[in-house]
Amino acid sequence: MKIQLDTTNKITRLEESIKLDTLFEELNKLLPDDMWKSFTLDISTSVNYPSSPIPIIIREPYGPYPQPWITYTDSSSDIDKFHLTEGIFNVDIQKL
Question: Does 37 have pLDDT greater than 90?
Answer without folding.
Answer: yes
